[in-house]
Amino acid sequence: MSDLLKSAISEKLSRNLAILQRAEQIGVAEAAKFYDLHPTTIWKLQNRVAEGKPAFDRRHMNPGAASSVDQNRLGWALAFMSSHQGVPLSVVQRELNKLAETEGWPKTSYSSLSRAINKLPKDMRVLLAEGGRAAFEKTGLVGKREQSRPLELVQIDASEMPIWTIHPATGLLIKPWMTGLIDGLSRVVPWLEFHLAKPDAVGAARAVTQAFMPKGDETLPFFGIPETLQTDNAQEYIGTLLQGVSVRAGFILDQVPISSPGANGKIERFFQTFQDQLLSRLAGYASQSHAKNKAEARGVIPWEVLKAVSRRFLLEYHSSVHRGIGMTPWEAWHENISNAPGYFVPASEIRRKLRIEVTCDVTREGILVFGSSYSGKALNGLVGSKVTVLCSAMGGDQSVEAFHLGNRIGFLRPTPLVIDEINKGRLNRQIGLSKFRKKMKDSLVDNPPVAAPETVIPAEERKRIKASQQQPKRKGRIKPVKFEVEPTEEPQS
Length: 493
Fold this sequence. Notes:
five-stranded mixed sheet, six-stranded antiparallel sheet, Nucleotidyltransferase, domain 5, alpha+beta
């Protein structure tokens, strides 16, 4: 063993002993922060020493050493993989051992061959397994982009959160998804959108809308139209829906190369920070063995509480010094935001630009968009056909702009429910009666009633008035007069 390797081992051993000593003094959590380690690393080291094993893992005493597979066998294996792209490694090992019998080579185990292949550069492994195009797409270098002002480059990504929570509708345990956006210069995270399942294109557009719109929250005063939105190649980002939003809003939608998470490194790093500093401290944290069983036994954090504590975490994150920029994200944003032209766009204009296209079926009642019903004269004669509307991804618009066969047909208004119309009529009637009563009370205050003066009327005059007011007596019924005719005597002949 060389002196240089002995020195490295001694240094590693001394560091591990120092970590254990500090963990006993100030606790594992504080020691992990001090040495910039995950607490699990220190726990594993403590368990290793408690079992009587050395504080240094001797399996790593000679990192980078040559594989037990010699150059002849490795060269033949690489040539075989190059000529048979996609062949399983077990087949390569079997064919190599067949050749070893004729050439007098020692047999090669699967594990030794696997270690030898895994020590090759990633681009070479991809080239052997999938070909040159795949190697370029998956391992191509991505240049680092520097920003000089906020909103110049914003990264977006979605990830399944390693925590169990309760579905608000079904009551079942689920792992939620989260979409996050981060500003490249200031490291400000303007919004975190939570999803009950893997987000689709509408969910991604909803996260973009929430991030770039004013939120009315003094703890999140970050908004504005970015110049470039950088995404990966997930289906929700490369579809036509988000591309249409980018065209209307005027920002560039830039996709990073396939399988290159380092190109979106800022948001990936924030996800790791979010997990280490918040999720790992909550009930239902899923980065443990048998996490779901423990969550069912000990309980999990509710859905709404998870979103609330996440917003609180954002406030702490924005007010803490970021090691990458040497100041807090809050300071970096507000000190340079005057240089960002997308910040000075009015809120109404931002909302208009961030609308999405939704295709709806026209019924007799109108159309249904995100749980809201809309109707109007523009839909006359279109029952049974489809129309496209421009609306906010958040829903609840006061009006939506409709198009049919590429032609604009006008705006549609929300369709009120019948019960709403009845309640509105009752309310208007009550308001009208209240106003009338108030008006009458005010008139009585302004013009109070005056008592009439007493007058003395002579007795004779009272009799005359009473007699004039008396109605004439109704005459009785006239009985018919009966006439009797006396018989006449007949003349005698």
